[in-house]
Amino acid sequence: MAAETGAESVEAAESADAADAVKETRGDADGAGGPDDSWGEVAPDAARRLLLAAVEAFAERGFHATTTRDIASRAGMSPAALYIHYRTKEELLYQISRVGHERSVRILTEAGNSAVTPADRLAAAVRAFVRWHAERHTTARVVQYELNALAEEHYAEIVALRRRSEEILRGILEDGVAAGDFTVPDIRGTALAVLSLCIDVARWFRSGGTRTPEEIGELYAGLVLRMVGAPAAPAAETADGADRGA
Amino acid sequence: MAAETGAESVEAAESADAADAVKETRGDADGAGGPDDSWGEVAPDAARRLLLAAVEAFAERGFHATTTRDIASRAGMSPAALYIHYRTKEELLYQISRVGHERSVRILTEAGNSAVTPADRLAAAVRAFVRWHAERHTTARVVQYELNALAEEHYAEIVALRRRSEEILRGILEDGVAAGDFTVPDIRGTALAVLSLCIDVARWFRSGGTRTPEEIGELYAGLVLRMVGAPAAPAAETADGADRGA
DNA sequence: CCGCCGCCTAAGCGGCTGCTCAGCAACCGT
DNA sequence: ACGGTTGCTGAGCAGCCGCTTAGGCGGCGG
User: What segments bear the compositional bias annotation Low complexity (chains A, B) (predicted)?
Assistant: First the structure.
């Protein structure tokens, strides 16, 4: 009962306050870079601290190598406190994974709708997706690489979300090919390759590196445009009116 | 003592019989596709079976979720037998990781030297690297995604090998830019992106899929050539004399 | 002021973990 | 025929795992 309360709060933060969550994400992304605080409005304070601790621990050592004692002590609590807010260790991973995947789908959807031409839409999607994987690389690492530690039914739900992401990207590629803007021999394979490129950023990105998330997003957007055979130099990130290239 | 014997045998298989190993790899790649038998000439038979069992178990569930009892029973032995051939469970992972990374470096080196023009060299490298990740995806998954379960000193050694791979690829890109064949704004970043693309194949590839390893290698080689701004349609895999394009 | 309730801890339970060890069977050169 | 080496097993140890339980503390409505 008490455990269920914590879980539902997370759910509420993602469904009821969806609009706010988006706004908050934009704000964070602009200001760029405190710690991983994508979990702004999660349930009681303790539940959020536990979730954040779990994200860090899972990202560092992986789900199976992380102990509940480790998570609890990172959050400054006793091991038993974890079970007041979450039923099991796996549910912690599930919440992280679900919220992260929902955010992924939203990022791709919004970026994919933020422009008119397929090239601009593709560039915006890659730019935003890569930026998220770099900026929130701790969260993203857990989201992208720990999913097969999930229980069967949770896993199935997450896989469905991942398919959504793939479909969104494939849709953009199909539009580009149909419009004659892209030249792609294998749309499904290419969509997969683009996703690979973006996702893998979470694996190697470190905060102290030479490139900022924005720079990597920009670089990758360019690479992807060339991959699909589109002419170079797209517009700016948002409909900003500032053409510089060409 | 006894444990050390097993470890050394693996080492011998990679250093003394290096030339044979290469030949055998080529043979397997051509015939394409039994189970993961990249471990052809490892020490006594039992040590090889244990290694193969460990590869499968690590790939399925991850290093930390795999028990020594699981590995042993897959190899048809008692848990204690493992410690006759390997000192610890981690050493098993280390051997897998080391041999796999050495093979990666060799694949990239040979493919990178198998042609003259940077475009052909890049295409050959990507084609071979992707093919390995698809064909041997079980091994590759462990090699690429379980390395942070390694002990500190083993990890450092593996990271050095990974840097070698990156340097090889970067070298090809630099040659191409110097020759005016490639147009790349950020060589390091692009090299990383190309590696990402290849490595990530091990994450999503399944044996029953619609595409063969060769087709994926071909597709990805084309994508990468466009990424670096090179003209399309390169020559065949080995110096085969058959020009078809351009 | 009381009694209740949400949040937390100390202690600990059963079970599984990586790993060890004594012993044994099969094979070896002599 | 035989002592020794090699490869393996059955049993088991110490320690850590996820998770539970009983109880306490502080704030809040009445």
Answer: 1-19
Q: Residue B236: inside a domain, yes or no?
A: no
pLDDT in tens, A191-223: 999 999 999 999 999 999 899 999 999 999 999
**A56, part of any domain:** yes
Give the total number of structural domains in chain A: 1
> Is the Cβ–Cβ distance between B107 and B29 less than 8 Å?
no
A165 touches strand D (CB under 7 A): no
Q: Which residue has the tokens 């030339």?
A: B19
Q: Is the pLDDT of residue A241 over 50?
A: no
Residues across chain B: 246
Any residues with CB less than 8 A from the CB of B181 and at least 6 apart, and which?
B117, B118, B119, B230
Mutate to test the interface with B, among A203, A220, A223 (most CBs of B within 10 A): A223
User: In which domain, by residue range, is A25 found?
Assistant: 2-227
% chain A with pLDDT above 90: 74
Q: Which nucleotides of C are covered by protein (CB under 7 A)?
A: 6-12, 16-22
> What's B87's domain CATH number?
1.10.357.10
Q: Let me know if residue A91 belongs to a domain.
A: yes
